[in-house]
Amino acid sequence: MNKVKLSLFALAALFAASCVQDPTVEGADQQVASSAKKIINTAEEAQAGELILYVDEATAEAWSNPEAVTRSGSAQLDALAIELGAHSVEPVFNMIIDAEAKRDMGLHRWFVVSFDDDENLEAAAEKFSAVPEIERVQYSTLLKRPDVKFMPVDQTFATRANSDELPFDDTMLELQWHYNNIGNRQYFYEAKKGEDIGAFGAWKFTTGNPEVIVAVVDEGVKYDHVDLEANMWTNIKEADGVEGVDDDGNGYIDDIYGLNATKQNGYITWAREGDTGHGTHVAGTVAAVNNNGFGVCGVAGGDGSGNGARIMSIQIFDGDDQSTLANTAKGIMYAADMGASVLQNSWGFPQDSVGQLTDGAFAMSFGVELDAMRYFMSKSNCSAMTGGVIIFAAGNDGKPSSNYPGAYNEWLSVAAYSADGLPTTYTCYGLGCNLSAPGGDDSVVNGRWVEYGGVLSTVPAETVDPYTGLPFGDDYGYMCGTSMACPHVSGVAALVLSYAVENGIKLTNTELYEILTSSVRNIDVDLKGTKTCFHYQTNRPYEWSLDPFKGKMGTGKLDATLAIMSLRGAVCVPIITGEELKLDVGDYLGHTGVDVTLSKEFVLPEDVKKNLDAKIDFFNNNLYITCKKPGIGVITVKYIAGGDKVGGGNTTGGKLMEKEVVLVVRDANDNGGWL
Ligand SMILES: [Ca+2]
Ligand SMILES: [Ca+2]
Ligand SMILES: [Ca+2]
Fold first, then answer.
1. How many Å lie between the centroid of ligand 1 and the Cα of residue 113?
2. 384-417 confidence digits (pLDDT tens)
């Protein structure tokens, strides 16, 4: 491998050796102009004593070659390194896995140069930018930890209605309105039935698959949490290997459950001072273990038989330490190299810290990050998909545009709605936001402030509550945020992939992005007038205008059932309980009705009859469907394309075709934008 770490002295000596060459000379004015352009971001929130450099091929070659690490090939660069007392020059990206693809993408040209923290960073950046061999200079911005607080579970709510209809036996599933919202106003003022991701419907088709790995880029995931452990991705060679040894030779020691990108080793942590439990919460939404008799469910957490999607922890916050841009980029590459196909990112740069960016400015300012993301999207780690997908949270600043990186056009950014199906009080919206998912909000119920309108998931019990200074003491808790909305989308991405794996369907990452953003319920229909919110301190209600959100919550509300059906290529037919639906050939089979005839062989499947209490009549080339119970059922409609009889023998006729039609039945007061 060509991971180069030079000591201070080795670097200085080698740079000195090449000082005999003439430095490349440029006109002074020209140099100022080009150097200003080369520094691609600002020193705001930057790590001291470190700069990220994008160098030309020859310098990359010189710095990457273990036999020739002693010179950069540029006298000017060598002299500068000596002047700054550089400790080391290290490639950002490890080239151990898929070196050729990485080289093709230019990833081998990114380096981190380190020097003393008290060196003037901006002056150093100026000097590096004046060296012709250096094409870009990037400050290694420190990530910002998202604001979070979490709230304990109130078990008294865990024995509510409709438990007989729950698909799994997890005791807290009833509290997870974000999967199946029954409109219980105990947990949220104006909670509305049907305002959920449609998880119960999707789980009839798949619940997850271990081949699908979701990398959670966040605080460390508590990998031995009782409700997560079985769904953790595990690097077998390290798990079965020797402590302190890089058993699989991937450049990282003891990376069993992922990578601590902050520390660049395999030791994932989650309960250091400053940790909030955020990563463990996000991971639980993606794939907490389903149907294991306790705790919560995850969107792609399996059915209790060990078949959940797998969670890989990419830790970018460690206690009070944050990852730099360079270390985060390494973490993203790790996820790509070790098998993840979904990159879950509930983090970003708040607009008050980096200003209002554009895509062009982001691509420029966060070049090393963008390259790592593009590498992730180029890797095909799931047998069902070409490429990988990246999902980001839009941010909690309530601004009319998504934060970056989420806002960037090559991946998805997720805004948050609450249990009433309306935008949350904090969500970013508008430009750059691609779709909405449940993030939850606090509320006042019967005069009392309650947090049960948040998203319920796993947390590390040992997390210290910053308000009391005491350990939280529970394995589960509520959190609110676009950070909580985002893993719903990642979880559904994992579900769609799981279904594809299990049914031999192939898709591209572009198609998966399209499925996620098009398999949505309408949010705009409800975005008029005001909604009632409550002042945090006074508990007093106030009216909050919904008009600014109209057309600005992305394409709509994530729907897991629609996403699976979209992949399956089935026609989805929305039905209201008790109302007869006339299924017209022309409307639903994509033909005019003149050349298409329904076959008379239709038989209503027993499970649909029973589960939906369904009745179907057939006459005049139409199906008349009535369902008395809400739920999902699949029927297969046969029809003759081209005439009213099937061709063959002495008959010139049509071709017998089959089409799956999915009946999606909801109560009339439960439309959630469906109908
Ligand atoms: Ca290793
Ligand atoms: Ca080891
Ligand atoms: Ca569980």
1. 24
2. 999 999 999 999 989 999 999 999 999 999 999 9
Q: Does domain 151-566 sit in CATH 3.40.50.200?
A: yes
Question: In angstroms, what is the span from residue 453 Cα to ligand 3's centroid?
Answer: 19
Going by C-beta distance under 8 Å and a sequence separation of 6 or more, which residues neighbour residue 385? 341, 497, 500, 506, 507, 508, 509, 512
Q: Residue 94: what are its φ and ψ, rounded to 5°?
A: -75, 130
Distances (CA, A) of 202 to 12, 27, 107, 633: 60, 65, 39, 11
241 Cα to the center of ligand 2, angstroms: 5
Which ligand is in closest contact with the Cα of 264? 1
Stated pTM of the model = 0.88
171 alpha carbon, closest ligand: 3
How far is ligand 3, taken at its centre, from the CA of residue 284, in Å? 9
**Ligand found nearest the CA of 229:** 3
**Cα distance between residue 421 and residue 272, in whole Å:** 36
Rounded to the nearest angstrom, the distance between the alpha carbon of 111 and the centre of ligand 1 is: 22
Tokens encoding 634: 């699949």
CA of 244 from ligand 3 middle (Å) equals: 33
Cα of 243 vs centre of ligand 2, distance in Å, is 4
pLDDT in tens, 206-263: 999 999 999 999 999 999 999 999 999 999 999 999 999 999 999 999 999 999 999 9
Expressed in angstroms and rounded, the spacing between residue 173 Cα and the centre of ligand 3 is: 8
For 571-670, CATH number out of 2.60.40.10, 1.10.560.10, 2.40.50.140, 2.160.20.10 equals 2.60.40.10
Task: Report the candidate in 419, 442, 415, 418 with the shortest Cα–Cα distance to residue 427.
Answer: 415
Please give the distance, rounded to the nearest whole angstrom, from the Cα atom of residue 247 to the centre of ligand 1.
5
